[in-house]
Structures are given as structure tokens and as C-alpha cells.
Amino acid sequence: MIGAYIMNAFGGSFRGHEVFLVDTFGLLKYAREDHVERGERFVVVPLLGRYKTENTEGYHLTPLIARTNSGLEIERWVKRLAWAKERQGTMHGPAFSHHRGEILDERWLELEILERIAVIQQERPDIVKPDVLVHEEYGILRSFRRGATTEARNVKVDEEDIKLMNRWRNFEEAKGRRPRMQMQDHYSDITQSIPSLLRFSKAL
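The structure corresponding to this sequence follows.
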């Protein structure tokens, strides 16, 4: 779950709490399918919206490249999470949860991630400089989104692609004014945007 959380947060440019919106049912549905766009493999990460219609729940679907230019194996970690939930017998609810369905403690997850960054700092000071106070300067609330956006700009990802990648937050903050569609309809809705969306995560 830690590996999958990191890949989702960084690849999708999400703020920390947003990753907890990943839904198990949708995750399993799309993990069973192969997704290819112009020869590029990708995975679909479903985030459950805060607002529901009478007949269906609103999903925001985020396509992420299977493997980024720097070698991050997003597909592998997303599918590992899906298979772990399936073996656990969990088919519904938040994907980042205990076997009883209780969502993971955000503080625990943050500490686990920061401890790993501290180990990297000790072993690879060329990656995390020795004078960085890991537990004070990093956190899951914004670090992954800030890091992903910075890296995308460093490798010259178009600003329009960056804005498109972050578009879902505008829908959520609109308090449901955007019509909610069933998952397959929503997937069809984003099909034309997939190449642009994949350019963001591929560049990381």
C-alpha cells in the first residue's frame, strides 16, 4: 500500500488526502483490463467523488502511464494494490484501508514514507541532501503534488497538460455541478484527453 500510495500521489499529482479517494470496486474493474493508447500502456485510477447522484456514484478517472521516463513502475504498483485487495476479499470501499474496511491512518502512512526517505538520505545523499530535515520539510499533504508539478515543468511538459492533469479538483470543488456519469460513460468522456493526460505522468 505504501508503494501504491506513492505512485498514485506522484504520478497523478495528487495532494495527500486525495489519494484516499481511490475506490476499490473501480480499481479492480480497471485493473482487470488492458489499456493501450498509441502503443503506450497505462492504468486507470478511479477516485470516488464527494458528491453522488440518485442512481450512481461519481468517479473521476485518472489515466497514468504504465512506466515513466525515469523508470517508475506505476502500473505494477497499482495492480499490486488491486490484487492485494482481491486476495483480502475486499471488493468495495476505500482502496487504502485495513482489511476491516477502515481507512488507513494518514499520520501513520506519512511517518512510514518519511522513514523511508530518511533511509534514502543516509544511503544516497546525492538524492536527498544531508542538511534537509526530512520530517519537517516533507509531508504527504502537498509534497508529491508539488514534486510532480516541479518535475513536469523541469522536463518541459506543456502548461496546458499540467492544468489538464489537475482539472479534477475543479470538478470536486464545484460541489457536484458537473453532471455525474456512470463509470463507462465517464471513461468514454475522457478518451479524447488520454494522450494529453499521459504526457504528464510519462514525463516524470
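The longest strand covers residues 40-52.
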